[in-house]
Amino acid sequence: MQSNNRWFPPVEHASPEGLLAIGGDLSSERLLEAYKLGIFPWYSQGQPILWWSPDPRAILYPNNFKISRSLKKNLRNRSYHVTIDTAFEQVIHRCAAPRRKEQAGGTWITPDMINAYLELRQLGYAHSVETWTGRTLVGGLYGVSLGAAFFGESMFSMRTDASKTALAHLIHLAQQWDFHFIDCQVPSPHVMRLGAEAVSRERFLGELDTALKSPDRIGRWQFPTDMAITRP
User: Fold this and answer.
1) What does R_g of the chain's alpha carbons equal in angstroms?
2) What span, in angstroms and rounded, lies between the C-alpha atoms of 111 and 49?
């Protein structure tokens, strides 16, 4: 799997925390190669680019997604309008904005990262799911798709269950398209509550290798017109 790698050392050389390499650039070619190798960038403004391959890895199998009682109610009541690939730039900027204390992450999405993923969006590899109340964007997520794998990058929520509603729609689409898993990167209480599980790096790379044998779904995505995800 790594025989054609031009930029990264073998992932087994990563530190105990998962840090594998420092430096380089965020070109689309390098980013896509990184994802294919189970590597992703994660760093803060003012730092060099840091590349990670953690062990264990958090992945979410579509059939294991846990829908809470409140989320089930919101889905049943159609509390939000959900779209896909209609507001990628808005979503990534919202994900990059400062968060409330109870929300995770955000500040690591630097201007250079934003520009890099906007380029991946133009190439048809990066995608967003958006949750709306009227014309107001209140939640969403974005990530990268290769083969039968979706690499989740970040999500944001301004209303109760808004980001989880976006994820529920992505999960249902992943089920319809036979996606193998959604990569959640680093295990955390939040993603584990959603149904993710921590797997070894070796297992993750094996499953990733299998998922990459499926054709890429490049270009703008659309939800099937008859898609309904409400559960009784």
Assistant:
1) 17
2) 13
Distance of alpha carbon 79 from the chain centroid: 23
- pLDDT above 90: residue 2: no
User: Range(s) for CATH 3.30.70.3550 in the chain?
Assistant: 11-52
What is the pLDDT at residue 224?
A: 85
The pLDDT value given to residue 106:
45
* Per CATH, domain 57-211 is 3.40.50.1010: no
For helices 69-76 and 162-176, angle between their N-to-C axes, nearest 10 degrees: 80
Of 88, 164, 159, the residue nearest 126 (C-alpha) = 88
- What does the pLDDT read at residue 20? 98
AA identity, residue 36: K
Looking at domain 11-52, which of 3.30.420.40, 2.60.40.10, 3.40.50.970, 3.30.70.3550 is its CATH number?
Answer: 3.30.70.3550
User: What are the start-end ranges of the E strands in the chain?
Assistant: 19-22, 40-41, 50-52, 57-60, 81-84, 126-133, 136-146, 149-157, 181-185, 197-199
The predicted-structure confidence for 99-148, as pLDDT tens digits, reads as follows 654 444 446 899 999 999 999 999 999 999 999 999 999 999 999 999 99
